Amino acid sequence: MSDNIETLTDATFDEQVKSSDVPVLVDFWAEWCGPCKMISPVLEEIAEEQAGKIRIGKLNIDDNLDVTRRYEVLSIPTLILFKDGEVAARLIGAKPKGALLEEISAYL
Amino acid sequence: MPERRKVVIVGSGPAGLTAALYTGRAMLNPLVIEGEPSSTSDQPGGQLMLTTDVENYPGFVDGIMGPELMGIMRAQAVRFDAELRTAKVSRVDLTPWPFHVWVGDPDAAEPTVLADTLIVATGARSLMLGVPNEDRLLGYGVSTCATCDGFFFRDQPIAVVGGGDSALEEAIFLARFGSKVTIIHRRDELRASKIMRGRAMANDKIEFKWNSVVTDIVGDTKVSGLRLRDTVTGEESDFPTAALFVAIGHEPNSSLFKGQLELEANGYVRTFDGTTRTSVDGVFACGDVQDDYYRQAITSAGSGCMAAIDAERWLEMRGE
Question: Which of A74, B65, B100, B104 could form a disulfide with B93 if both were Cys (CB 3.0 to 4.6 A apart)?
């Protein structure tokens, strides 16, 4: 995983996401999910290109059921964008980079 | 000037990657335009990216995971200098030669690539039910990917709609998670293979609801049930479930070629004389986009090999 992507856990989620000054895009993923693997490089690119404007974190749903349940994730990959600690946008399913950027750009 | 390539392959499932492997080994430096990330089968790697255990691909005694198999095929093609581009073809013009291929803006004056031969390996994608609340609840209990989403329905009732091998495969996989799995099928018999039927029937957690079609999906923020209609009596009923997995078959990804390649009545690309030749000289088709009958990873790979050999000989004959 690149330096630009943070690892989130049940224990650290609130601290890392809720109190962030910039929007945080959280990727709910799992090892066994093909489409999740496909968007990983896309997220790394976005994290690098938009550094300072957005933070990107990955939350492994197998290991972090509390947060996964709290946001009622029922499909992966699900990407949730948090702004000022609140859910600003929710994207379900793998998408090409252009489509992802389009959906989150309004919040950056 | 757009770049010119001897071989351009559209699609990167077993057919596209096998064609890439063969044309790569033949020193034709193929360009594979592999598609873009998505959660449907219309993605790099194709339908196998959404499956778990593949038990019937020769060479893997204990089976192999679909995404892993596709990773290996990709690496093998790259080893022989196939170039893979993660992008989607937006338009083709097969009237001029070399063929014109656009990636990105389909209205751009200049094509992105010129192709001496074009290998069409765009595959097929899952059909959706087309009922009122399906789109709204996709990702909230409605799913086309059991391997992605089954996990979320542990100890809850799950429904699978469909009667073919993929429906049963999904149901058997989902039975690991759900409290029970109900297969909803519009007829009173399955078209699935004998081995899959046997496995599904023998699974304690799997039940069948025969002669039933889904007419709507119910749920406020997530799926809570289905509306079913009995195909014999016409009676409507409510069916409670936490999830609905859709596996009712596939349609070919052939719209890019409509009006340019001859298609069968059901939309599949027509190939001729047991080869991969299409109605346009120099364009070859392989895999599920031209096969509505066998539709296996191994037959796709086999026809990808045929397309590579057909393209290679075509180039040789032309003195290219």
Answer: B100
| Count of all residues that appear for chain A in the document | 108
Query: What's the pLDDT tens digit per position in B107-138?
Result: 999 999 999 999 999 999 889 999 999 989 98
Question: How far away is chain B from the Cα of A41, in angstroms, using its nearest Cα?
Answer: 10
Of B281, B252, B282, B247, the closest CA to residue B265 belongs to B252
The residue of chain B nearest to residue A30, with distances taken between CA atoms, is: B148
Taken in order B296, B212, B144, B168, is the CA torsion positive or negative?
negative
Instruction: Please report, as a single letter, which amino acid is at residue A68.
Output: T
pLDDT tens readout for residues B137-192: 988 999 988 888 999 999 999 999 999 998 999 999 999 999 999 999 999 999 99
Of B196, B157, B189, B186, nearest in space to B174 by CA: B157
Dihedral of alpha carbons A71, A77, A83, A88, sign: negative
**Reported ipTM:** 0.76
Q: Is B253 helix (H, G, I), strand (E, B) or coil?
A: coil
Tell me the pairing of strands B53-54 and A86-92: unpaired
Chain B positions in Cβ-Cβ contact with residue A34 (cut-off 8 Å) = 45, 49-50, 66-67, 147-148
Give B27 to chain A, closest Cα distance, Å. 28
